[in-house]
Amino acid sequence: MSKEIQPTSHKPRIAIAGGTGRVGSTLTSLLASDPVDITVLTRRPDAAQLPKGVSIAAIDFGQPHTLQEALRGAIGCSFRMARRHCKWPTRSR
After folding, report:
1. What residues contact 55, with CB distance under 8 A and at least 6 apart?
2. What is the mean pLDDT of residues 43-65?
3. Under DSSP, is residue 47 helix (H, G, I), strand (E, B) or coil?
4. How far is CA 51 from CA 2, 37, 59, 64, 91, in A?
5. pLDDT at 7 over 70
6. Is 70 exceeded by the pLDDT of residue 82?
7. How does 51-88 read in b/e, with b if 16+ C-beta sit within 10 Å?
8. For residue 80, what pLDDT band results from cuts at 50, 70 and 90?
9. CB–CB of 59/70 below 8 Å?
10. What is the average per-residue pLDDT within 44-69?
């Protein structure tokens, strides 16, 4: 599902999960003018309206390999997603 992300320069690459949502899109817009390559991780790449120069990676949280591929080469990642989309087991306290 995810296409291989090729950095466009030698700038650090940051991945933003949920970069098309309310908080993530604001973060993406703020970082777009910084000297970094940004990749937005989204479940719906067709719905994305991103600033110029921002890459997109289609991911499926039910298919962990799509996330691994999208994060390859990133120096950091911001995750902001609704709990209902997470299918990972939770720890009991």
Report:
1. 5, 8, 37, 38, 39, 40
2. 87
3. helix
4. 20, 12, 19, 27, 37
5. no
6. no
7. eeebbbbbbeeeeeebbebbbeebeeebeeeeeeeeee
8. low
9. yes
10. 87
The two tokens of residue 70 are 């999208």
Mean pLDDT of 8-27: 80
Residue carrying the six token digits 């479940």: 43
Question: How many CB atoms lie under 10 A from the CB of residue 8?
Answer: 10
pTM exceeds 0.85 for this model: no
What class, spelled out in words, does domain 13-85 have in CATH? alpha beta
Main-chain phi, psi angles of 4, to 5 degrees:
-70, 130
Whether 15 contacts 5, CB under 8 Å: no
Distance CA(28)–CA(23), nearest Å, equals 9
Tell me the two tokens of residue 9.
């320069």
Block residue for tokens 């591929």: 69
Q: Which residues fall within 8 angstroms of residue 78, CB to CB, at 6 or more apart? A: 14, 15, 16, 17, 18, 19, 24, 27
